Amino acid sequence: MEQIAIKTDFIKLDALLKFAALVGTGGEAKQVIQDGLVGVNGETCTMRGRKLYPGDRIDFQGFTLEVTKA
User: Fold this and answer.
1) At a CB cut-off of 8 Å and minimum separation 6, what does 39 contact?
2) Alpha helices (runs of H) in the chain, residue ranges in sequence order
3) How far is CA 67 from CA 32, 35, 44, 47, 54, in A?
4) Residues 6+ apart with CB under 8 A from 27
5) Total-model pTM
6) 67: how many CB neighbours lie within 10 A of its CB?
7) Interval 25-44: pLDDT, tens
8) Of 8, 21, 23, 50, which residue is 20 to 30 A from 39 by alpha carbon distance?
9) Residue 45 phi/psi, 5° resolution?
10) Other beta carbons within 10 Å of 57
11) How far is Cα of residue 50 from the mean position of the Cα atoms in its chain?
């Protein structure tokens, strides 16, 4: 599991996928989220603007990320 440290209170799901370099573009992030390929805290998430806070876990293509506070 990789930890992604953020300096803000939250980060949106699509931005996190780009920040972690799991997708190349915002359009790609939007598509994989809408296709139901991303899990948040063990549940499939199709909301690209979902706010993620420290402690949230994201699963995508065999990668697991945990949001932490920087």
Assistant:
1) 45, 58, 59, 60
2) 13-19, 26-34
3) 19, 22, 17, 17, 5
4) none
5) 0.93
6) 19
7) 999 999 999 999 999 999 99
8) 8
9) -125, 130
10) 14
11) 9
